[in-house]
Structure formats: C-alpha cells, structure tokens
Amino acid sequence: MTGTSRTTITLRNETLDAVHDLVDVGDFASADDAVLAAIDAWRETREDQGQRL
Fold this sequence. Notes:
This protein is mainly α. The chain has one domain. Helices cover 81% and strands 0% of the residues. The protein contains two helices and no strands. It has helices at residues 3-24, 28-48. The longest helix has 22 residues, at 3-24. The two termini are 23 Å apart.
C-alpha cells in the first residue's frame, strides 16, 4: 500500500469517526455537512487526478 493510500484510509477513518461522534450527540446537521464536505473533497481529488466521476 502506498503512502497516499494509507493517508486516504486514515482520513476516511477519521471522517467516519467524526461523523459517528456527531450522530452520537444528535448533531445531525453537522454530520450531514461533514459527509457532504468529504464527498466534495473526494470529487476534487478525483478531478485533480484527471479521473472521470
């Protein structure tokens, strides 16, 4: 596994942990925002790499 893949997995796990924590305390709006931000970041990364979505 490359360093980039490990970083991606770490960020993905950190995002999931953060969303889980927000849901646990009932902050669903912030959890939604966090998920949407993660999706936007993923799309930007894919576009930067020249990959089709």
